[in-house]
From TrEMBL:
Protein's name according to its UniProt entry: alpha-1,2-Mannosidase
Taxon lineage: Eukaryota, Fungi, Dikarya, Basidiomycota, Agaricomycotina
GO annotation, biological process: carbohydrate metabolic process; ERAD pathway
Cofactor: Ca(2+)
SUPFAM superfamilies associated with the record: Seven-hairpin glycosidases
Length: 587
């Protein structure tokens, strides 16, 4: 047995892990609010599971690997329809509990039947649920919510400030998505009024927003906080015809486009100077404090009907750097994972932490969406000059880029799924440390010696040996968090992803249901799990929406015509008229 085979991957669970989250936890404010990020998070579960901080062996819980991870037999269409109905019933159970005990406050406490106001006190669970109600044809619940929406006063007591990031993705995103589906004018009017209330946060020299909605915020901004508003503000500009909202989104896009990324290989770091819109550190991550910013690069390109080439170039630079520098294989089970790293180093490899966050589980879905919607094998056809993508793109020159992105998507999805399947509860931890031996990465001054478990190194060796069998880290094991799981089902048509979604939903039903809703879990490692008094609004916005759409035969959300924001609110693809381009100064 060699030194690598002696190791098993280890995971560390943190007090705010994920069990209902369909994407991943959102950065900065959430990471402060929930203390550990958050995930994406399928992005999809940050605080819904709260495991204790321990280290334990990371191995299957059901003994026979083939039995635990084997795909189910072919399921009849009627069974999937019945499963969609079960998800709708779960939504009604949780939302009726919210209506009875918590409305118009933010969230229900499902054990005590109390409530809490953790996101402005404006009824975030209602706003996050509007489009899910419409997609599920829940007209009565929608009709009961509208009077509350009309009466909401978008204000806070003196000395309190709205968390901008959460307010945009939950409240504004929820209003805009519901308006796109129903065209009730009250929804657009309230969205416009909310944006007006928040507009002072952009009073910085660079146009980047101040954090936490403060008028005079800190000088250092967090990537996901400053670069996760483009979808919502672009959509608001289209719906209202107001150039100012387009300018808010476009200012962020152009600032990111001009940023000096020489020290980070073309990828955006976490910390930013709000005064000059330049990077403040060299910490690279796709997890907490960064996830949705990377997500919005591709999604803004898709939202604008593939017309903003700058977003596409930024997405390609980021994903190229991720694939060539941040993807690794674990030493024992050869699981593909993405980690964060500090750059630069003398060997330009960075300092990887080998920490795999559940929040990063949005990435396989994003890669699959990109492979589905972009001509990755012929980028010149959309006007992309490879010289603008940095040197990393040439490291991938011997591969079909579309195929490579799908390999990465499926391998990461499998690892994310196994974090669920390995737990007795069937629900996943928030964070894992993929342990490595000391000489895999040995610190020598300011550089690290590579030990050979870079994914691209493994892929290169596999290719040189004849490319026999599946690519490294891409065996047939199964998928991921719910957004990624949903997108892999939609882009590949492989029903195994759908089946994994059902297994997760079944675990949620068995382990988290209460008489009035669905509770968080204090730990995912023991049965029966102890429940926590918490039901986050994204349970309605993301978890149940993605599950319902995954099981429905007639999914009304075409990936060619709609783009999900980071809180799973679908927004329609925008096609600017010539008069709009002239009015907004859009090239």
């Amino acid at each position: 047995m060699n030194q690598y085979q002696k190791l098993t991957e280890m995971y560390s669970t943190h007090p705010f892990s994920a069990s209902l989250r369909s994407v991943r936890h959102k950065p900065y404010f959430r990471s402060i609010l929930y203390s550990s990020l958050v995930i994406f998070s399928i992005y999809f579960l940050y605080k819904f599971v709260h495991p204790s901080t321990i280290y334990t062996q990371f191995k299957p819980f059901a003994g026979d690997l083939s039995e635990t991870y084997a795909p189910a037999d072919k399921v009849a269409p009627q069974v999937w329809q019945d499963r969609a109905k079960s998800v709708k019933a779960a939504f009604l159970h949780g939302y009726h509990g919210y209506e009875r005990y918590a409305q118009p406050h933010d969230e229900l406490l499902p054990l005590s039947n109390g409530y809490r106001n953790n996101f402005n006190g404006w009824g975030v669970s209602m706003y996050d649920s509007l489009d899910t109600m419409l997609l599920m044809d829940l007209e009565d619940e929608y009709a009961r919510a509208i009077p509350f929406i009309e009466k909401t006063v978008f204000s806070l007591p003196e000395g309190q400030f709205a968390p901008f990031f959460e307010t945009i993705i939950r409240y504004l995103g929820g209003l805009l998505s519901a308006y796109a589906l129903r065209k009730d004018e009250v929804l657009l009017r309230r969205a416009d009024e909310l944006a007006e209330k928040l507009d002072h946060v952009f009073a910085t020299p660079s146009g980047f927003l101040y954090l936490d909605g403060t008028v005079v915020g800190p000088e250092i901004g967090i990537l996901a906080e400053i670069a996760s508003l483009q979808l919502e503000y672009t959509t608001l500009a289209k719906f209202t015809g107001k150039k100012r909202w387009w300018d808010r989104a476009n200012t962020v896009i152009r600032a990111l486009e001009k940023a000096n990324l020489r020290d980070t290989g073309g990828m955006f770091p976490i910390g930013w100077n709000l005064s000059n819109a330049q990077p403040k550190d060299t910490h690279l991550s796709v997890g907490a404090q960064a996830d949705s910013a990377h997500e919005y690069l591709l999604k803004q390109y898709l939202l604008t009907a593939k017309t903003d080439k700058a977003n596409l170039e930024m997405y390609l630079r980021a994903t190229t750097h991720i694939i060539t520098n941040l993807l690794f294989l674990s030493p024992t089970r050869h699981l593909l994972y993405v980690t964060d790293a500090q750059f630069p180093t003398l060997d330009h490899k960075g300092r990887p932490s080998h920490r795999f966050e559940h929040l990063s589980c949005f990435l396989p879905g994003l890669l699959a969406l990109g492979a589905h919607t972009l001509p990755l094998d012929d980028l010149t056809s959309v006007g992309i000059d490879l010289e603008h993508l940095g040197t990393g793109i040439y490291l991938l020159a011997g591969y079909n880029l579309k195929t490579l992105h799908m390999w990465a998507a499926e391998g990461l999805a499998q690892t994310c799924w196994l974090t669920y399947a390995d737990m007795p509860t069937g629900l996943g931890p928030d964070e894992m440390l993929m342990h490595t031996v000391s000489d895999l990465w040995r610190e020598t001054g300011d550089s690290f010696k590579e030990g050979g478990y870079s994914w691209m190194d493994a892929i290169s060796k596999w290719k040189r040996s004849g490319a026999r069998g599946a690519p490294p880290g891409v065996g047939d094991k199964t998928p991921v968090t719910l957004e990624s799981l949903y997108l892999l089902w939609r882009t590949t048509g492989n029903s195994k992803w759908r089946d994994r979604g059902w297994r997760i939903f079944d675990s949620i039903e068995r382990n988290t249901k209460t008489p009035s809703g669905y509770a968080s879990l204090i730990t995912v490692e023991v049965m029966p799990p102890a429940k926590d008094d918490d039901m986050p609004s994204y349970f309605f916005a993301e978890t149940l929406k993605y599950l319902y759409l995954m099981f429905s035969d007639n999914d009304p959300i075409s990936l060619d015509e709609w783009v999900f924001n980071t809180e799973a609110h679908p927004l329609p693809v925008i096609r600017w008229s010539q008069s709009e381009k002239d009015a907004f100064n859009i090239p």
